[in-house]
Structures are given as structure tokens and as C-alpha cells.
């Protein structure tokens, strides 16, 4: 499930008691469910009625049935238990344990071990939630400004219990028959195909859905709405708001079918269900992989051609992620939430690598390194991180997304390179075939890898080590190692040492089993990524006999570790990158050298002169992958608020960066060309976004010219880079152009265009237009939606210098009361993220103001300010 922010909100902000994976929080193992029949009927816009019939088997003799139920009104007389012969088993009481969400039915006589019973709970009532979990309603503007709605479920990890009484743990799989009662003006959907519709009288219709395969409760899905299906492509249909044209959904409809086919071929297992619906939901965060009924924020379903290339690419990768879950998570499911990475790690891996098979020219396998691998390295820092095999210490703490998604996928990718592609793929095929419709834990996966290693005669790849030991070492260790490389330039020996990456310096050293790969300038070989040397001790020395040129460690960035070289090797690498042969080092390795250099420079582990000499090679770099890595690192170091300062010191920094980036832009030019490739467009988008952010005059002038032409001719901008140019224009617009874009925002019903216009308006940098923007956001009478207001403030903070303080001053100066704060409260999960460093500089009163606007302060690099100072001092010699 693509919901990094969602996990933060569920388990941090609301302090929700989810699951404490200690024995007393597990259900008793006295019964297990076999089949559910779930019937739901919305009654009003706030509540619904439900019935559930659960066929269950007694695993031991027991005098009670314990299952989950939360916030449901269950009449005591609605509970019936019968055996297979129709004999009733009477109950004498029920107990609700609100801490554990247990609903305990006390029986008058015991259930007999091995026998099957049917538990029926009729006419209970529930309330639609307001947290976008469980069963909830989302309203939207439909055709001709009419009101539309979608009633839907989102159960991962433990919200099924909020909608129907159930055994809400992932290992307790059962089949489901779903009945949804709706009006004639609505349609419904569930995991499996519709079997029949029964007329119940009045304006009530009951849709009956085919029984599902055995699956976990968190994957059950229901929808009742007045939305519209697109045409069907194989097993796939899209369900979207009626106003969106077929053209807007063609990309996802086509590519989703291709991804489904590619996953079938890769796994060797056909998609198990009869259909796969993909639903675009207004205001949803991320996506949810419900088996046969994937739900998304609609921006990942509605993907018109005039979107940015990044947005189009994200439509492909996010859909690939959720479709991969149909195998990894749905067909084969984690045994407990300790092992969330078995679901999310593989889905994150395949969202790039299966998509790369479909769009090879997009280089998604290489983009993975700068998007996921490097992100994990930046965030998986001790002491504030945890292992992939998660240890629950409190009921409200849940695995961090950076670990179960990004880190897990990097370890999975590393495993592929340890084992080779053949062993990896065949191991996964064995895993899926062996455990389909069952639950697993990591050792089951490792067993399958090991089985194929033996079959293919490749046990030597492990260097005499135990595979379970290697992979458990990575799954159970927090953080990652830094490998220091010291060369002995007279003998050619190379000493490798490992240390834990701990910002606090307090952690005990851990020893990782590190698969080292390396190559030399004079014996260059980037083809093979199998392990050259297993590092199982603190230090190991390799007698390479090669003192010449450079050594490069971690070929294609396949190992989950950083590399710190001695100064001489950094100089040799720098000299080579400044030569005409620099592209002989693969783009992903150039990107990783850049990211490692930034990392060590920030922490005073790399001299400023060496760092600047090294990164200055980027003036000749034309490849998107290393450029993207550089831009991301710049973004992090400067936080893009500091870099917008107008004083002389930061003017030096901006001047240097503009010069460097313009040189990188030369290969694709400033303007879109008919023959641009996807990578050309991505590169231009990223560089121009940074140049415009830096206030480059040429960028701003072009934006003003394009907006002026639109105003004069009435022909709107619809090219994919429209938002970038509008943002540039809004940095220093005329009053007429500002008012014109406000007008366009107010007139359009297209939510995607409204987002683009609003983000562009948030780029205002002058005091006058900052005030105009904030006045527009806080206007009680305009037609802006709550989530748009929150998104607008988020863009304002990102795009303007001192944006957070400008918001605070505006609220204070205008004495805004609770009416204005209430404008943001319906945005629910639309949170305004700010770096924690901003929060530290605010007074308690100012922090309270921002908190009322749904602000989350997130951890960032505390060394950024120091790094900026060093760069300010070092840049002049490179101008």
C-alpha cells in the first residue's frame, strides 16, 4: 500500500491502539474462521446497518468465542450460534474489551473440538468514520456541479473490525460472500464479480458478490457510489468520477493491464480473481491493494497527456505497486504485522522493476536507486530507526514506512544480486506456489531461495556462509553499515572496515554480513554484480595487487551500505569524472558517489575542497540519474527556504548553482521539443524546477511571456511543464497576471488544473503577493475546498522564503478566529509537512497556531545549517 504519510497519521498523530504483538493482544487460538457472509446497508450519511454470518471451526473445546469488534452497536439478542445440524448453542453474556478491541461471547455449553459452527450477528449498527479508515463516505463535485459520493472501506491494518465483527488478524484467512444494499441511483463493487441483484422493495437493491478465495480481513473491500466505470481492458476496469473522459484514464487502463500481464509472466502464476477494478477516490492518501478492488487517490488513476512526466511516471509505478500486491500480500500474506516488509518491500521493488520491463527507455531500474535506495539511506539512521523484522513495544507504534517499503525493497534488490536473477526469480516462484492462499514469515522465503540455490548449483555464491544467517542479519539489524575503504598504494592491498551508521554515536557496533563488490579503473568491470568479497568481520584486507587508478566499491549500488574512501581515492575518482571518459562509470554509480559525497561532507567526514572539486564535474553531466541525485541532495541541505535568501552570501551559492545547472540543461534545452524522450522531459522538469526556485531570470521571463500570451490570446497553457512556467511567472508577476490566474483557478471545474494553478500561485516571493495569496487561502467566501487550502499552504511553505512565518504573521496581524481555522478541518489527512528545524525556531504560541492548521513537523538533517555555511565559504573559487 502506497501510504507513507497515512501510516504516520494513523499511528503517530491519533495514537491509535493498533496492535501490540504480544501474546495477550492476539486472539485466542480456540476457533478459526472458514467463511464470512457480510451484508451492509447505509442508512443515513452517518451510519449503516450490518449483518455477518461466520462459519468457524473449533480448534479446541472452548466455552467462549473471542473475535474483534470496535465501535459497533451489537444487540445481545442478535447473536445466534448453531452447529452443522442446526442445533442452537446458547450464549449467556458478552464482554467488550475496548483496549484490545475484543468482543467475547460467553457460551452456556462448550464448542466441541473439530466441529464447525455458524455464528450470526444480525442488525448491528456502525457509524461511518471520519478518519478515512474503516467504512467511510467521501463527497465530491460531480457533473453539472451536482454532489457525488463514494462510500468505501480501507481496512489495513486493523480497521475491518470497525465495520463488521471478525477475526481481524492477517493469518486468519477465510472466504467472503459480500452483500451490499443500495438505491437505484447507485452502483456497488466488492472484491469479486457481481453474481446477482435482488430487488428488496421500495428503492432497495441487494448486490450479491461471488465468494472470494481465502483471504485476510484487511483485504476485504466494499464500495457504494454514483461514479462511472470506464471501458474494460481484459480483467481491468477503472471506476472514476463521471466527468473524467476516457482520454484521462486511457494511460492507466492500458498500463495496468500490461503490468498485470507482466506480473503473471514473471511469477508464473495467473492472477487468481475474475476481475480487477481500480478506483479513483477524491482526497484519498496513496493507495490500497484490496484484492480485486484497488483504491487510489484519483491523481494516480486520472492521468492526462498534459500532466508532467513525473506525474505520468508515478501513475505507472504506483499502479505497479498495488498490482504487485495481488501476489505479494494477497495471494501470499504475512503471518503477522511483524513482517510487514514481506508485503510492502516486494511491492515497492516491483513497482520499479516490473514497470521497467514495460518501459525500458524510462530506466526505472536505475531511477529506483535515486528514488528509493538513496531515500532509505538518508532516513534509516540510528538511533531513530528499527529493523525490518519489527518488534512491537507499544500498541500504538507501527513499522515505519521507510523501513517496510524503502529499506526492505533495497535489501530484496541486494538479495537478487547476491543470488543472481535466475535464483531470485525461481525462488520467488517457488515461494508463491508453495504458500499461495497461505501466510508466511521470512524463513519460508529464505527456504525457497536456498532450495533453488541448491538446484542450480550456486551455493558457492554464499562464500561458505549460511543464507538464513545472512538475510536474517539484515532483517533484524537496525540501520545500515558504512564501509570505509583504505588503500595501500605501494602494495595494492585494500582494507575494508565497517561501522554502524549512528548519528548519536551511542549504539553498540553491529556486524553485518556485507556482500562487497568492487572494480578498478585499470581493470574496469561493471557487468558482474555477484559478491567479490564477503565481509563478516569488523575489518578485512584484500590483496588486490592494483595500486593504480581508482577503486569503486558497490557496483551499481546493489549493496545496502555507504562507502567512504580515503582522500587520495576521492581525488582519483574526481580526476576521472572530469575526463572525457567519465561515462564509463555507470550513471547509478555516479549518482551514488554524489549521494555518498554529500552525506560525508555534511558530517565533516569529507573535506570541502574535495567535495566541491568532485561535484563540480556536474557541469558536464548530461544524464538524468546523477543529476536527480544532486538536485535531491541540494534540496535537503538547503531546505530551499535558506537558499532563497537574497543576501550576498547566498547570492554566491545561487550564482554557482545556476551556472552549474544551466550547463547540465544544455543537452535538452530550455523548451520542449517534439522529439524529446521521457528522460529528456524528466531532466528538463527537474533542472528547470530548481532554476526557477533559485529565481533564475531567464526562467522567470519565459514564464511571464507564456502567461501573457495566454491572457492575450485566450489559448490556455496545457503542455506538461505548464505548472513550472506558471510558478516562475508568479514569483514576480504583474497585478493583472496575478488576477488572471486567480480567475482561471476559480472558473475551472478540473481538479487537476486547480491544483496546478494553486501551486503556481503559491510561488509568490514578494511581500505584496505573499499577502494576496494568504488572503485568498483564508477567504471565507471563495469556492476553495478544505484540502485545497491545506495543499495551498503546503506549497506556499515549500515555494517561498520564510513561508511558515509569513503564515503566522498573517494570522496574528489579521486576528483570524476559529472560523478561519475551521476552513481546514475537513481536509482530514491532508497534512502540511514542515521540517522540524522550522518548528524548533518557533515559539510555543506559533507552533500552536500551525498545529491548528494541520501541520506536522518532520525530522530533517540537523547538520544542514553547518553544511550551508561551509558551502558559502567554499563556492567562490569555483565561480
Automatic annotation (TrEMBL):
GO terms for biological process: peptide catabolic process; proteolysis. It is an enzyme of class 3 (hydrolase). Binds 1 zinc ion per subunit. Its main location: membrane. The lineage of its organism: Eukaryota, Metazoa, Ecdysozoa, Arthropoda, Hexapoda. GO terms for cellular component: cytoplasm; extracellular space; plasma membrane; side of membrane. The record marks 405 as: Transition state stabilizer. It is found in: Cell membrane; Membrane. Residues 32-219 form the Aminopeptidase N-like N-terminal domain. Residues 1-20 form the signal peptide. Its cofactor is Zn(2+). Transmembrane segments: none annotated. This is Aminopeptidase. It comes from Photinus pyralis. Residues 550-814 form the ERAP1-like C-terminal domain. Its EC number is 3.4.11.-. It comes from the Eukaryota.
Amino acid at each position: 500500500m502506497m501510504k507513507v504519510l497515512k501510516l504516520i497519521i494513523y499511528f503517530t498523530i491519533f495514537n491509535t491502539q493498533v496492535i501490540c504483538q504480544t501474546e495477550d493482544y492476539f486472539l485466542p487460538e480456540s476457533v478459526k474462521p472458514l467463511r464470512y457472509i457480510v451484508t451492509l446497508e447505509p442508512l443515513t450519511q452517518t451510519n449503516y446497518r450490518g449483518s455477518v454470518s461466520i462459519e468457524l471451526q473449533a480448534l479446541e473445546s472452548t466455552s467462549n468465542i473471542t473475535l474483534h469488534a470496535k465501535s459497533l452497536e451489537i444487540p445481545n439478542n442478535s447473536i445466534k450460534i448453531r452447529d452443522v445440524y442446526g442445533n442452537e448453542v446458547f450464549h449467556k453474556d458478552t464482554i467488550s474489551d475496548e483496549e484490545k478491541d475484543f468482543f467475547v461471547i460467553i457460551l452456556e455449553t462448550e464448542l466441541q473440538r473439530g466441529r464447525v459452527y455458524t455464528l450470526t450477528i444480525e442488525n448491528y449498527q456502525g457509524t461511518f468514520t471520519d478518519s478515512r479508515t474503516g467504512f467511510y463516505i467521501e463527497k465530491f463535485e460531480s457533473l453539472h456541479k451536482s454532489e457525488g459520493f463514494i462510500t468505501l472501506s480501507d481496512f489495513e491494518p486493523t480497521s475491518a473490525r470497525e465495520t463488521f465483527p471478525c477475526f481481524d488478524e492477517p493469518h486468519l484467512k477465510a472466504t467472503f460472500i459480500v452483500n451490499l444494499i443500495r438505491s437505484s441511483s447507485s452502483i456497488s463493487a466488492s472484491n469479486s464479480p457481481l453474481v446477482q441483484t435482488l430487488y428488496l422493495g421500495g428503492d432497495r437493491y441487494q448486490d450479491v458478490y461471488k465468494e472470494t478465495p481465502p483471504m485476510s480481513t484487511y483485504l476485504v473491500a466494499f464500495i457504494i457510489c454514483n461514479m462511472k466505470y470506464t471501458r474494460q481492458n481484459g480483467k481491468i476496469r477503472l471506476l472514476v468520477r463521471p466527468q473524467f473522459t476516457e482520454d484521462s484514464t486511457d494511460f492507466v487502463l492500458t498500463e495496468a493491464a500490461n503490468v498485470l500481464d507482466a506480473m503473471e509472466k514473471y511469477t508464473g502464476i495467473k492472477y487468481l480473481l475474475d476481475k480487477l477494478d481500480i478506483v479513483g477516490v477524491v482526497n484519498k492518501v496513496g493507495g490500497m491493494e484490496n484484492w480485486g478492488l484497488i483504491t487510489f487517490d484519483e491523481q494516480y488513476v486520472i492521468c492526462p497527456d498534459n500532466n508532467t512526466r513525473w506525474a505520468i511516471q508515478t501513475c505507472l509505478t504506483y499502479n505497479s505497486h498495488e498490482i504487485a500486491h495481488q501476489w505479494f500480500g494477497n495471494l501470499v500474506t504475512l503471518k503477522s504485522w511483524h513482517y510487514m516488509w514481506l508485503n510492502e518491500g516486494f511491492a515497492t521493488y516491483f513497482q520499479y522493476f516490473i514497470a521497467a520491463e514495460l518501459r525500458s527507455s524510462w530506466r526505472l531500474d536505475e531511477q529506483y536507486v535515486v528514488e528509493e535506495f538513496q531515500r532509505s539511506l538518508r532516513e534509516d539512521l540510528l538511533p531513530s530507526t528499527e529493523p525490518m523484522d519489527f518488534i512491537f513495544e507499544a500498541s500504538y507504534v507501527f513499522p515505519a514506512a521507510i523501513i517496510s517499503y524503502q529499506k526492505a525493497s533495497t535489501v530484496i534488490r541486494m538479495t537478487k544480486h547476491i543470488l543472481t536473477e535466475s535464483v531470485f526469480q525461481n525462488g520467488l516462484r517457488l515461494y508463491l506456489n508453495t504458500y499461495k492462499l497461505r501466510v508466511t514469515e521470512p524463513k519460508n522465503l529464505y527456504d525457497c531461495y536456498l532450495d533453488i540455490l541448491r538446484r542450480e548449483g550456486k551455493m558457492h555464491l554464499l562464500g561458505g556462509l549460511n543464507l538464513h544467517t545472512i538475510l536474517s542479519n539484515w532483517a533484524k539489524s537496525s540501520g545500515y553499515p558504512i564501509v570505509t575503504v583504505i588503500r595501500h598504494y605501494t602494495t595494492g592491498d585494500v582494507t575494508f572496515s565497517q561501522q554502524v551508521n549512528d548519528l548519536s554515536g551511542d549504539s553498540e557496533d553491529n556486524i553485518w554480513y556485507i556482500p562487497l563488490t568492487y572494480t578498478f579503473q585499470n581493470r574496469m568491470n561493471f557487468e558482474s554484480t555477484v559478491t567479490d568479497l564477503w565481509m563478516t568481520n569488523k575489518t578485512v584486507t584484500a590483496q588486490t595487487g592494483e595500486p593504480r587508478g581508482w577503486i569503486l566499491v558497490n557496483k551499481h549500488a546493489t549493496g545496502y551500505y555507504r562507502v567512504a574512501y580515503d582522500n587520495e581515492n576521492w581525488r582519483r575518482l574526481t580526476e576521472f569524472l572530469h575526463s572525457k571518459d567519465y561515462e564509463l562509470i555507470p550513471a547509478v554509480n555516479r549518482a551514488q558517489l554524489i549521494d555518498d559525497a554529500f552525506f560525508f561532507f555534511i558530517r565533516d567526514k569529507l573535506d570541502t575542497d574535495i567535495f566541491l572539486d568532485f561535484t563540480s564535474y556536474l557541469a558536464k553531466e548530461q544524464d538524468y540519474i546523477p543529476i536527480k541525485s544532486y538536485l535531491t541532495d541540494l534540496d535537503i541541505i538547503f531546505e530551499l527556504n535558506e537558499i532563497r535568501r537574497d543576501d550576498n552570501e547566498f547570492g554566491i551559492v545561487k550564482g554557482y548553482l545556476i551556472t552549474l545547472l544551466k550547463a547540465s540543461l544544455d543537452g535538452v534545452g530550455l523548451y520542449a521539443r517534439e522529439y524529446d524522450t521521457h528522460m529528456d522531459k524528466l531532466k528538463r522538469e527537474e533542472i528547470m524546477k530548481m532554476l526557477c526556485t533559485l529565481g533564475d531570470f531567464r526562467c522567470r521571463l519565459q514564464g511571464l511571456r507564456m502567461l501573457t500570451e495566454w491572457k492575450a490570446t485566450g489559448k490556455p497553457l496545457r503542455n506538461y511543464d505548464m505548472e513550472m512556467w506558471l510558478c516562475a511567472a508568479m514569483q514576480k508577476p504583474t497585478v493583472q497576471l496575478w488576477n488572471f490566474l486567480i480567475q482561471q483557478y476559480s472558473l475551472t471545474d478540473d481538479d487537476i488544473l486547480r491544483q496546478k494553478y494553486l501551486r503556481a500561485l503559491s510561488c509568490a516571493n514578494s511581500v505584496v503577493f505573499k499577502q494576496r495569496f494568504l488572503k485568498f487561502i483564508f477567504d471565507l467566501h471563495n469556492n476553495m475546498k478544505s484540502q485545497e487550502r491545506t495543499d495551498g499552504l503546503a506549497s506556499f511553505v515549500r515555494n517561498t522564503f520564510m513561508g511558515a512565518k509569513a503564515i503566522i504573521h498573517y494570522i496574528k496581524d489579521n486576528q483570524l478566529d476559529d472560523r478561519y481555522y475551521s476552513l481546514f478541518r475537513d481536509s482530514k489527512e491532508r497534512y502540511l509537512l514542515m521540517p522540524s528545524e522550522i518548528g524548533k525556531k518557533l515559539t510555543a504560541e506559533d507552533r500552536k497556531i500551525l498545529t491548528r492548521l494541520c501541520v506536522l513537523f518532520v525530522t530533517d538533517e540537523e547538520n544542514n545549517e553547518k553544511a550551508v555555511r561551509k558551502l558559502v565559504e567554499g563556492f567562490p573559487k569555483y565561480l
